[in-house]
Amino acid sequence: MSRLSPQEVLRRLFDVAVASVKPERLLDHLPPPPRGRTVVVGAGKAAAEMARILENAWPGELSGVVATRYGHAAPTRRIEVLEASHPVPDEAGCAAARRILDAVGGLTADDLVICLLSGGGSALLSLPADGISLADKQEVSRQLLACGAGIDEMNAVRKHLSAIKGGRLALACAPARLVTLAISDVVGDDPAVIASGPTVADPTTYADARAVIAKYGLALPPAVRAHLAAEPDETPKPGDARLAHAEYRLIAAPQQALRAAEAEARRLGYDVLLLGDSIEGEAREVAKVHAGIARQIALRDAPVARPALILSGGETTVTLRGKGRGGRNSEFLLALAIALNGLLGAYALAADTDGIDGSEDNAGAWIAPDTLARAAALGLRAQDSLADNDGYGFFAALDDLLITGPTHTNVNDFRAILLL
């Protein structure tokens, strides 16, 4: 049994998980150099670091441009790194998308395009379709983020409002060979969902996008509503011969990170219950389920025996009801603390593997058996903070935020509950 404190164990597991899915994994998946030019493009929170690693290893001529989130740049010499806004797109993202399309224009069958994709790429490749303004896309993005829509639903809409997503970048690269190297941040590792699938076929349709809008009752800008109704240019679908030049290679995924953490936990002497990398739903509801499992282990030593660890990944959602600050992981932990209600021996960490929980400066936060008591001593009621979606404010007051800075990878959420 480890002599580390519970917080030290949880942090070690998070670090091991992140280290297992670093961009260096792309070195095992590089294609051979072409007869002609090599152009690198891409987008995502890990795109700049992926570009740095690639250009250091590439044996020949290289050029290109990638887009990443503000603060996530990495030093490169031949590949230009542009920064833009995430999760709500901005003009810098539009400019980056235009530059990427320009970079792949006019290529031949002797040329190679390497596309580097990771989570966040959808917002960073924010070039609107003809007739739609950036302000229109920003408004749709805000509504989608606030309504609790899943990432697949958001991307179905984004693809049909875009000039580059949903396979359109792949069409622009033809006839050059296209190899996409991707880090998955989505449940199921579906290439069509990662960064809204700019280099693969899109199985969704305009009708699917309209169904998402209707499901959540979104109030669309007139130009967006008109575009979705007109269906001017459907995205390329599976089997489309125009994508025959495109290849997709997944270099890192959420399950790898969880397996690495599981192995380390077992080495430290913990029995592990791995719930998988596909957990979805409202963060506060997912927390209740995790709390129920934790109580079963604490009371019955089943389905695993203490000292035990519950591990899970995936991507929860938050329906905004209040005006507080925080992301889905701090919301999960706030609800978990309430549900556990000071359960002795229960400690937890939840964090986003990219180092940013939502739009704040923290990766996530911690809870312990005394979390609610310490909050009460400061005049804080966890129930009030949860009602206001203010997980960030709650854990900041307790000095229990986990702040890592950008990790330069992104395989979704990491949740770990220790039971001693």
TrEMBL record:
Residues 10-228 form the MOFRL-associated domain. Keywords: ATP-binding, Kinase, Nucleotide-binding, Transferase. GO terms for molecular function: ATP binding; glycerate kinase activity. The keyword Metal-binding does not apply. Residues 309-413 form the MOFRL domain. It comes from the Bacteria. It holds the Pfam family MOFRL. GO terms for cellular component: cytoplasm. PANTHER family: GLYCERATE KINASE (PTHR12227). This is Glycerate kinase. It comes from Chromobacterium paludis. The lineage of its organism: Bacteria, Pseudomonadati, Pseudomonadota, Betaproteobacteria, Neisseriales.
